[in-house]
Amino acid sequence: MEQRYATSPEQVPGMDTAELRRRYLVEDLFAEGEVHAVYTHHDRVVLVGVVPLDGALDLPTYPEIASTTFFEHREAGIVNVGGPGTITVDGETHDLAHGSCLYVGRGADGVSFRSADPAGEAGPARFYLFSAPAHTAHPATLVEAGGGTVRELGDQLTSNRRTLNQYVHENGVKSCQVVMGVTTLHPGNMWNTMPAHTHDRRTEVYLYFDLPAEARVVHLLGQPAETRHLLVADGQAVVSPSWSIHSGVGTGAYSFVWAMAGENQAFDDMDGVPVAELR
User: Which of this chain's residues are annotated to bind Zn(2+) (predicted)?
Assistant: First the structure.
């Protein structure tokens, strides 16, 4: 498990591109046949990428979280951004198609991952797990791709028309603090979350997927008056601290998993920033 310590906005002006990428961009979360994990001290979020090949991969525990099992005092939302696969939680197996989400609550014991047909046209499953500490237990719940609460946002004229699926949230799948969903850009649209905003009470992580291999998303971060950017490829994640904006424009259409943890679960708890105030 890689550890990343929390940062303050005062550090950003002195960072070069390499430092920005080391602090906020997770480049190698998915590796075939392996489980990769990153622990960020921003709201103690853990990110995990799992790519099963020939057999099942079990979710390990880690010394960094000081627990006998991964879910002893944690919960997680898991989205499959690859080919079809299954997740088994305490003996119950859940089928996840591309874009589907499984919530796993505090107290789950054995959790394993398997690809349905790793050599097939769709390739192996790629399970993206977003975890935060939890103080209550809720049952494992599956949401099929395109389900949950659906919100249509943006406008074709501003190139940010998008469909937002809320999976784990206060009016959907119940959790302790994790809020999670998937947003898909409509064809011909490139911008997400513009005008931008911050969440002063929560950390948010974007995981970009369904992006062509040669395409990139220019992801904006930093305080509104001190912005920076990252060039992000398919399957890469950006950690957005509570003081940072999070917005991006792609060289092609794409989808992304957004997930938050922190003070509350109110989706609309955000502080908007007019475009003219960005620097």
Answer: 197, 199, 204, 246
Confirm or deny that 204 is annotated as ligand binding.
yes
Q: How is the chain split into domains, by residue range? A: 2-277
251 Ramachandran zone, left/alpha/beta (phi>0; psi -120 to 50)? alpha
The answer to the question of whether 199 is labelled as a binding residue is: yes
Which residue bears the tokens 């490829």?
233
246 is in an annotated binding site: yes
Give dist(CA 28, CA 246) in Å, integer: 20
Residue 246 binned pLDDT confidence (cut-offs 50, 70, 90):
very high
Average pLDDT over residues 106-131: 97
Question: Which DSSP string do the residues of 167-236 spell out, in sequence order?
Answer: EESTTSB--SS-EEEEEEEPTT--EES-S-EE-TTEEEEEEEES--TT--EEEEEEETTEEEEEEE-TT-
**Token pair 């990139």 is at which residue?**
216
Find tokens 């719940």 and name the residue. Answer: 141
Q: Identify the residue whose tokens are 């977003």.
A: 130
What is the fold, at CATH topology level, of the domain defined by 2-277?
Jelly Rolls (2.60.120)
| Residues counted in the chain | 279
SS3 158: helix
User: Is 41 labelled as part of a ligand binding site?
Assistant: no
Q: How far apart are CA 275 and CA 30, in angstroms?
A: 34
pLDDT score recorded for residue 46: 98
pLDDT in tens, 78-104: 999 999 999 999 999 999 999 999 999
